[in-house]
Amino acid sequence: MIRWCAILVLGLAPTLAQPHGGVVEEEDLCVIKVNYLRGHFKIYQPLTSGHREYCEDLPDATESVFVMEYLHDSLSEAAVDFRIIRDVTGKGRFARWDDIQAIDDLDAATVFYQPPTVDPDVLTVIHDFDEEGDFIGVVTANVGGDGQVYRAVFPFEVGYTGLGFWPYILLLLLLVELLWLYMTGRLQRWWSGAALILVSLTFGGADAYANEWTSQRGIFTVHYESSLDPIEINRMHSWTLVVTRDNEPLEGADITVSGGMPEHDHGMPTRPRVTADLGGGRYRLDGMRFHMNGTWEVMLDITAGGSRDTVIITLVL
Description:
single chain, alpha+beta, Immunoglobulin-like, 6-stranded antiparallel β-sheet, 8 helices
């Protein structure tokens, strides 16, 4: 279920990454909406990007050419002005005309302004940005000479990295994956493996093998000693287990062995078993072999005195 949610998020990602404000993408074309009036809208940065077209966000602070091709005759007859301001609204992508009206000194925030002009087919504006940052474009159309004013407001970024919402989506997917690992118990096992690596790096491989391993319910404690030191891949060898309970040697325990590599979802290549009770809480475990490098778990299921518990020994080979 969790991973299906992640797939759903990825499916929504292109929608989340669409431009905001008065410019939208329709059938691979950038369309600006000035109220109900529309035009094809594109921006060029010829000095750095050649003929590449942008809808809103721009990668570089450089000379930029804004082109608006009218799709309605009313725009061809209207007086249209074009303004670019620094985004001082604090609204970012959600800035609208009401936010711009609330600016105390609009002229001080304005970095470019082209007065109203009547162009029959295409409005062209050239502005050389001298700094990166967040800006807001405003297109104002006086339609029909009767005082009817329509506007398009489009926030955009200069110095745009192109990452958009992807960092947030990737963070969400990481959190979903961690939740899945936690719910399946793998996170705890991997954490145990990481802790063992840290101990090995700090104290050396042989000393790491001398650590105590406590059973899941805290009933038993196990030490082990390997006949191979260090343990080698694809070498059959034996272990001596030292089992205690309440710091006392555990006699007469019944111990069964299983294990494998949780990261690879496979078991051990052999069937190790306890072959001798050596006395004093010591048991001989034969048939140990590890056939590849990585994180292994050896699970000792111990039954004694009416109690049963499992010790999981994690090895990084």
